[in-house]
Amino acid sequence: MKLPLIELTVDEATDAFVSAIALVENPAIESDFLAFNKVEKFAMNEDKQILIGAAMTPDKPIFRTSPKGDYYCIFSKDTIQKIQQIFFKKGLIQSLNIDHNAKQPCLDSYIFQSYITDETMGVSAPNQLGELPDGTWIIGVKIDNAELWKQVKEGKVKGFSVEGIFSMLPTDISVEDITPADDDLELTKALNDFNKVLEKVTAKKFI
């Protein structure tokens, strides 16, 4: 069965933008930190207590379920660039939390590095992150909190996941349904986490 593909966009004028980034156990973009909602994983520098990883990757379908039916959603390169720009324009470098829980902020932590990969400019992701598409948003996070860094070292958080309000634009594309089996607990948890974030989505139109 094929499912519709919805493009998620942002619009600062209507308060539709990424407002925070969470440190999560299962990122949606399948790239660990150099420690959306299976997490983008990251890589870490233990001496400096730094995490480097992908916050968002473009054009990758992410499964979503809603009362109106199941579908996949994507972010384009242009939208990810807008998200990055609005995020910094609004001074959200300390807007970090654990598992999308506003009551669990990442204390003494902040984003100190941010760029979009661009092959034409020779800007690429760190080798430790593996193959990532052009247009990926890479961030670096400095953690000065001992308890939070302990969670990172113990593997309790493994990647980044964005949260915010988005506008939804239907496309003419459909995607083969590759939803997980019931016993795929890790991926199911990741999808459920991502769905919680998108409960805030404002739909301009839904087909």
How would you portray this structure in words?
- The protein has 207 residues and is an alpha+beta fold.
- Helix content is 16%, strand content 36%.
- It has helices spanning 77-89, 146-153, 185-197, and strands at residues 2-9, 18-24, 40-45, 50-56, 62-64, 71-74, 96-98, 101-105, 109-116, 137-143, 159-164, 167-176.
- Strands 8-7-2-11-3-4-10-9 form an eight-stranded mixed beta sheet.
- The protein is globular and about 50 Å long.
- The two termini are 16 Å apart.
- Pfam families: Peptidase_S78_2.
- GO terms for molecular function: peptidase activity.
- It comes from Mucilaginibacter gracilis.
Radius of gyration: 16 Å
Q: What's the tally of helices?
A: 3
The oligomerization state is single chain
Low-confidence stretches: 32-38, 180-192, 194-207
Which structural class should the secondary elements be placed in?
A: alpha+beta
Q: Characterize the biggest β-sheet.
A: 8 strands, mixed
How many domains, in number, for the residues?
1
N-to-C terminal Cα separation, in Å? 16 Å
The dominant shape is: globular
Describe the structure concisely for a colleague.
By secondary structure, the chain is α+β, with helices and mostly antiparallel strands.
Topology:
Blueprint: E1 2-9, E2 18-24, E3 40-45, E4 50-56, E5 62-64, E6 71-74, H1 77-89, E7 96-98, E8 101-105, E9 109-116, E10 137-143, H2 146-153, E11 159-164, E12 167-176, H3 185-197
Parallel strand pairs: 1-6, 2-7
Antiparallel strand pairs: 1-12, 2-11, 3-4, 3-11, 4-10, 5-6, 7-8, 9-10
